[in-house]
Each structure stands twice: as structure tokens, then as C-alpha cells.
Amino acid sequence: MKKWPVSLILTCLLVLQLAGCSPATKPGSPESEEGPASARIPVTMLYTLDLSHFEALVEETYPDIDLQVERNARATIDGESERRLRTGHGSDIITTSMPTGDVRDYALDLSAQSFASTYQAGISQSLLIGGKTLFLPLPGQYSGYIYNVTLANQAGVTEPPANTGELLSMLDAAAAQGLGMGSDGVMFAIESNDMTNVSSYFVGAQVPDFLGLSEGVVWRERLTKREDTFSNGMDSLDLSIAMAERGYLDPARIYITRGNATPVRDRMLNGTLLLSYSTVQFLDTLNAESDQYEFAMVPFLSEGDNHPWTIVAPAAFLGLNAALAEPGKEEVFDAALRVLALLSTPEGQTAFIRDLGASQSYLAAEVPVPSDIPAGIADCVSDGYVYNIQFPAKLLYYYGRNMISVLNGELSLEEALANVDRYFLEGDEEVEYDQTLIGVVAGDMIYENYNVRREETGIGNLVADAIRELTGADMAFANGGAIRGSLYEGNVFGSDLDVVCPYDNTLVVLEAKGSVIREMLANGLTLIVQESGIPGGRFLNVSGLCYSYRAPEGDSPAQLLDITLPDGSPFDETRTYTIAVTSYMCGADGYLDNNGDGFTMLNVYSDTAPLAEDVKLVQETGKTFGDALQLYFQAHNSEAIQAQPEGRIKVVSGGD
Predict the structure, then answer these.
(1) How many Cβ atoms are within 10 Å of 114's Cβ, its own excluded?
(2) β-sheet bridge partners, residue 128
(3) Which residues contact 86 (CB under 8 A, 6 or more apart)?
């Protein structure tokens, strides 16, 4: 099913060692001489936040440069950056949170620039891709546990927890009084359910008692040389398992889709979530927005008496668009280089820290950082207990996914670690596909309450359109039971498409008479209402025609009404059309025990029912719904994909 092999990049790390630098070119040097204000050079970039302090510094230092920062949603920054780069309209300065993604193919080599060498060796080595420096890290955030002090005090816990046992006891005490939990019983969640953050949490929780100790350092060095395995090191999920067993953590909602994740900010502010994992910036946000509660932060804690640790990660990575090396762009190229040179100074880092609310610079040179870092985190920083997760991005991602499977009871810890070892040592094309950025969607396409089994939806239209485009058929039909997930505004990964269309039934193209198509549509309406309350999966989402039906009411079943072509012209029941459907609907699995969803009028395979009349098999594509979606995103990678109801299926109430 998965046809996009992407080589495993093991050179770029998401969370990296502290670093520093001095500017390659001092402001005011010949390289940065200003031009007339009327001829300022525009340098463009995307970012998720307002960068007013850094913009002001750039334009004060280099009056000939006009830094133009376009705000873009956090959820779409990678997909939007890559989409524009593919079409030749990318920003001069590339922004990405995934330097191991395909965006690297559009980035210039910065290795020869003096500012690239001003970063500490650890981070420089970590960011090498194919031996080249393509990206520079922005300042980052310290992370740890944030808890509701007010509710903890009400539960009788007056001191910050000093180890994992005390952290769990705090949750138990609050739970006993019904404090800090919602109706679902959940008391702990991860603030950003991006898989990078989820994975970082699982790794960070093991730092105080393993990764941060001498044996963990030795293990990590051996792992780098492929002389050791995850199964021999990262073998503890004790705290997470304990929270899941008590119901304080819902592993099914840690990472499914953005729309299904726990709304951490809202629940922390309304007192229905006692504990979360996030950054110092998020802690500041909570305390600034709440008049009712006080929040505090503690670092990752030991199960015993080991010193606690915090972790830190870059807010994003910046590089230069390779298109700047083209003839005629020398002036913008030079200006963009000067912007990155300024970023690589204490002054540039300070401005970014102010814009980002960050708490840590990656320069070796001293950079002022906020003085209001929480006490427990500040102790870790001053004592040198700051851990930089040194695992490649995709490996970290896959590790996190497997740990979620353990908490969900789908895998044992031993099985999950064996999966990670296989991927680490051998690679895996399917895993690579799952972690590949497929594209970006412009708005939510929601699957909920079985809506694709009774009405037109954006996600149903997208799947049907993808099938029709893949097959070239006049019309395409997607049975609602084969659509199982949503796509949310922002980046779309291979694993997201697997959630939407998880089944392996393949697509076929038929020639079918219009009267057969009418019979097929009518069959799709027969199980909209069932005693279980769950609509049957045979309802048809469509592309290439429109239809209306009367909704079932009382003992009256649903009734197919009109069928038209998309332009409003009549549908001809005597004409033959090409249609794309699944082999499942055509009897590939037979029609016994409700297989084939009753579409016997399409039977071209099964000997358990009469072969269809006025139907001819034209093509067996061998492609699935998921393949169709993947190819659709690939074909439309110059745009943000959008789909919404547009009148293809109209539902008429019983009284109309």
C-alpha cells in the first residue's frame, strides 16, 4: 500500500546540546553597509509567532534590509513551507520543525559561512545532514511537569513532589477528593500532542534514573555505534503505566489526531486537569490567564534519590532557500545571510528569546535568559542537569508511537522495543511512509458520529474525489464504512492517511448501466438506521454525480429520490458509465455473512450470488483508498487541499 520510500536520516537530532556563537559579520562592517531607505531589500520568512523584536533588530542593524515575517499556523508551518518551496514560491528563510523532512532538499549548504561554525560542536555535529550544515536552531524551552498548586494544596499536598512516588501520591490524594479531574477521570495529559513532544516526554521520564547516569551515557554512545539496542536500555515506563492503570492518563488520547486530544490548556484553567507536561512558556501562560489557580513546575523526577532533570528543545530551525543561489538573486542572498548572521549573535538570540518567550539559547556565548525560570528548573540548569535528547527525529517519533501502543495494551514493552530496534538497525519502508509529510490541508475534514454513513462530508468528498482521479472513471463511490478518521487543518503525514482509510480492499473500474447505479445508490441507503444506533457502512460518498434521498422516519425506510450529474444535467439510466468502487462491493469476499454490504448488483467475482447484469469489469487497479489519497496529495502538492460539503448529497426530511 505504501509507495513512498524515504531514506532514514540518522544525522539530525530534534533536541540538541546547548550551544553558542559570535557573529560572522559585525553590524557596521563592509559586508553589512546599508543602502538607501527607499531601496530596502525584502527578505521573507514564515513563522508561527510575531517576531517584532527580531524584525526591529534586523532593520536597526541593517537599514537596507526589510525583514518580512508572515504569520502561519503552528499546525501548518512545515507543510506550508514545503508546499511553497516545491512550487518555487518559498520564503527566502526556510522555517521548519522537522529538519529531517524533505524540506532539506530545498536548503542551501551553510557550512562555509563563518556564523555556522560559531555554534557549539555538539549542535553543529547533530545538525549535519550529509555532512552539510543546512539549518540553525532557534532558542528553545525547558520542559517539565506543570501542576495546579491550588488544587494540590486543597488535597493536602503542600510541597512540590520530589520523586515519582510523591508525584503519583499527589494525583491519588487529589483523585480521592475528586479534584483536578474531569468526568473521564483523566488527571494528566501532554500539552502539545505533536508526536515529537509525546516522544520527548517518554524519553525525558527515563533521564533521572538511566539516561542521565553514567550507564545511560555509555549506553547512548554504544547505541550510536550500533553496538547496543533499545531493548537493553529504554525499558521503563513505570510512571506512565501506573497513571494509565489508575485512569489518570488516557493513552488513547495522547496522540490520535489533534481533534481527539485532551484540551490541556482549557482543562488546566478550569481545574479539571491537575497535571500536564509542557514548557516554561506554557506555565507562564497558565499563570497569566488564571485568577483562580496558581500553577508551578517541577522537572523530570527520579524513582529514588537521583537528581531531577529538565530537557530543552529548539523552537524551530532556520535555513536558506536554495533558490537564492540562482543568478540575479545575489542581493537578496547576501541580505538573508546577514539575517542569519545576526541571529547567530547574543543580540539576535536575545531578541528571539523575547519574541518566543524562550528560556534557553543555543549559543556558547553568554546570552541573557529570563530570570523567572521556575525554581526546580532553575536548579537543574544551574547544577548542569539539562538533558538534550540525542535520538534522530524519525526514530524518536517511532519510539513514542510504540510506547503509546504499550499503554494502550496493544503491545508488551518487550515487543514495542523490539519494533524500535528493528527500525533502528534495519529501517522500514512502511514506518518511513507513516512518518513522511504527505501534504497540508486548508481546513478540518471531520469524521464523527458516523457522519460519512448518512450524509455528505468533506472527508467523504475528498476520498471519493481521490478515487475518481486515480481511476479516471466517470463516477467514484466510497462506502462510508471504509472511512474511519478525520484530517485536521495543517500537516498531513502518511500515518494520518492510514487512520482515515485503514483497509486494504482494492479499487476496480466497472462499466455499469445507469439503472444499476440507481440500484446501487438505493442499496447504500438501506441501513442508515439500525437497532444498534450505528448506521451501516454501505452508505455511498460520491464524486461525479449528485443524489438526494428522503431520510427514514418511523417505519418508513430511506428513499432514493433524484440523481443528477454535477452540472445539473440529467442522469441517464439507459446510458453506460464507468464507475470506480471497491472489489469488496463487487463480491471479492463473497456476499455471505453481510460481506459485500449487499451490493450484489455489482457482482463480478463471487459464486455465492448471481453475476451482475449490465455490468462489465474494466480494470483492477490494485490500489486502495489510502493509495488514492496518497497519490491525490502528491498530484496536488502545489496547493493546500480542501474539501467540504457542496451539495452532492441532499437529505430531505420525512415531512418535506
Answers:
(1) 13
(2) 133
(3) 106, 637, 638
Only one residue has cell 537596507, namely 64
Q: Is the pLDDT of residue 4 over 70?
A: no
DSSP 446: -
596: alpha, beta or left, given left = phi > 0 and alpha = psi -120 to 50? left
Distance, in Å, from the CA atom of 508 to the CA atom of 489, rounded to the nearest integer, reads 31
User: What's the rounded Cα separation, in Å, for the pair 598 and 609?
Assistant: 10
Taking the C-alpha atoms of residue 110 and residue 137, their distance in angstroms, rounded to an integer, is 13
User: Is there a contact between 481 and 536 (Cβ–Cβ < 8 Å)?
Assistant: yes
Q: Do residues 645 and 89 make contact, with C-beta atoms less than 8 angstroms apart?
A: no
| Residue 620, all three cell numbers | 483492477
* Cβ–Cβ under 8 Å, residues 97 and 16: no
Distance CA 224, CA 403 (A): 21
DSSP 8-state class, residue 244: H
- Distance between CA atoms of 11 and 343, rounded to whole angstroms? 23
* Bridge partners (DSSP) listed for residue 543: 476
Question: Sign of dihedral through CA atoms 391, 396, 398, 399?
Answer: positive
Closest CA to 189 of 283, 298, 276, 285: 276
3-state secondary structure of 553: strand
Are the beta carbons of 418 and 398 closer than 8 angstroms? no
Please return the burial class of 530, using the count of CB atoms within 10 Å of its CB with bins 0-12, 13-18 and 19+: exposed
Q: Are 46 and 22 in contact (CB under 8 A)?
A: no
**How much is the mean pLDDT over the chain?**
87
Cα–Cα distance measured from residue 494 to residue 316, given in angstroms and rounded to the nearest whole number: 22
The amino acid present at 9, given as its one-letter code, is: I
pLDDT value at 239 more than 80: yes
Enumerate domains of the chain plus CATH numbers.
30-139+315-356 (3.40.190.10), 142-310+377-429 (3.40.190.10), 438-652 (3.90.780.10)
What's the grid cell of residue 369? 535568559
CA angle 545, 550, 556 (to 5 degrees): 140
Collapsing DSSP states into helix, strand and coil, what is residue 578? strand
Show the cell assigned to 621: 487497479
Q: CA-CA distance, 287 to 43, in Å (whole number)?
A: 36
How many angstroms separate the CA atoms of 135 and 128, rounded? 8
Amino acid code (one letter) for 287: N
3-state helix/strand/coil string of 63-79: CCEEEEEEECCHHHHHH
Q: How many helices (H) and strands (E) does the chain have?
A: 20, 23
* Predicted local confidence at residue 207, as pLDDT: 96
Q: Take residue 257 and report the three cell numbers written for it.
A: 489526531
In 3D space, the residue among 535, 625, 610, 631 whose CA is nearest the CA of residue 580 turns out to be 625
With a cut of 80, say whether residue 336 has pLDDT above it.
yes
In 3D, which of 144, 143, 172 has the Cα closest to residue 157?
Answer: 172
- Which amino acid, 108? L
Task: Please name which of 464, 458, 467, 460 lies closest in space to residue 484, comparing C-alpha atoms.
Answer: 460
Identify which of 199, 182, 219, 173 has the alpha carbon closest to the alpha carbon of residue 277.
Answer: 199
Q: Is the pLDDT of residue 14 over 70?
A: no
Q: Give pLDDT, residue 123.
A: 61
**For residue range 608-617, what is the model confidence (pLDDT) as tens digits?**
899 999 999 9
Burial (CB < 10 A; 0-12, 13-18, 19+), residue 8, is: buried
- The 10s digit of each residue's pLDDT in 88-108 is 888 999 998 777 667 888 999
b/e map of 474-487 (b: 16 or more CB within 10 Å)? Answer: bbbbbbbbbbbbbb
Q: Residues of 55-66 as b/e, b for ≥16 C-beta within 10 angstroms? A: bebbbebbebbb
